[in-house]
Write a structure and sequence with these properties.
Keywords: Cell inner membrane, Cell membrane, Copper, Membrane, Signal-anchor, Transmembrane, Transmembrane helix
Strand content: 25-35%
Structural class: alpha+beta
InterPro entries: CtaG/Cox11_dom_sf, Cyt_c_oxidase_assmbl_CtaG
Helix content: 10-25%
Number of helices: 2
Order of helices and strands: HEEEEEEEEEHE
GO molecular function, one term: copper ion binding
CATH class of the largest domain: Mainly Beta
Largest sheet: 5 strands, mixed
Pfam families: CtaG_Cox11
CATH superfamily of the largest domain: Ctag/Cox11
Main location: membrane
Length: 206
């Protein structure tokens, strides 16, 4: 009688611990990807405001302390509307500005529809590399704008071109800067107090 054939040892069973670890790692990766997608927009906005990337303008609370330079630059103004029944245009198409001087210009919007509408303006400057030098002190683009049916409004932009613009050799050939706005509709405008609907009196240049 022949001896029994040797049997192969049973394959080791993979423990639940390893499966759980793999699943946890996969879940963590998915969570990080989802979190990154939500964080990308505010991070991108912060990056643009800080660096002037993609023509994003800067914000200041006051005028520069130094006197304006003798060098000037032409600033052009562009106005666009996307999805709103508004007429939107600058009061002036372009002006010549001494670098470092604070200037106030106005845009006018008119609601051409028969109902109240609200919009928010997106903005940038070109050339895109000039964004870090184009500084706003006040601008209608900082907040939503709500217009009653048929209402018109003059809205100021108070800005200056930072003197550091002239110190950057890459800007030696830049003669014109274009400030561009595009209004988009706001579907769910933020509620505002009654006093906020009162239009501030128009003022001249600062």
């Amino acid at each position: 009688m022949s001896p029994p054939l040797p049997q192969a040892p049973p394959a080791p069973r993979r423990g639940f611990g390893r499966d759980t670890a793999v699943a946890a790692v996969c879940g963590l990766v998915v969570a990080l990807m989802v979190g990154a997608s939500f964080a990308a927009v505010p991070f991108y906005n912060w990056f643009c405001r800080t660096t002037g990337f993609n023509g994003t303008t800067q914000v200041a609370r006051a005028a520069p302390s130094a006197a304006p330079l003798t060098r000037t630059v032409t600033v052009g103004f562009d106005a666009n509307v996307n999805g709103l029944p508004w007429k939107f245009e600058p009061e002036q198409r372009e002006i010549e500005v001494p670098i470092g001087k604070v200037v106030t210009i106005y845009y006018r919007i008119t609601n051409l529809s028969r109902s109240d509408t609200t919009g928010q303006a997106a903005y940038n400057v070109t050339p895109l590399t000039v964004g870090s030098y184009f500084t706003k002190i006040n601008c209608f683009c900082f907040t939503e704008q709500s217009l009653a049916a048929g209402e018109s409004r003059d809205m100021p932009v108070v800005f200056y071109v930072d003197p550091a613009f002239a110190a950057d050799p890459e800007n030696d050939t830049v003669k014109t800067i274009t400030l561009s706005y595009t209004y988009y509709p706001v579907r769910d405008p933020a509620p505002k107090p009654v006093a906020s609907s009162e239009q501030a009196p128009r003022k001249g240049n600062l």
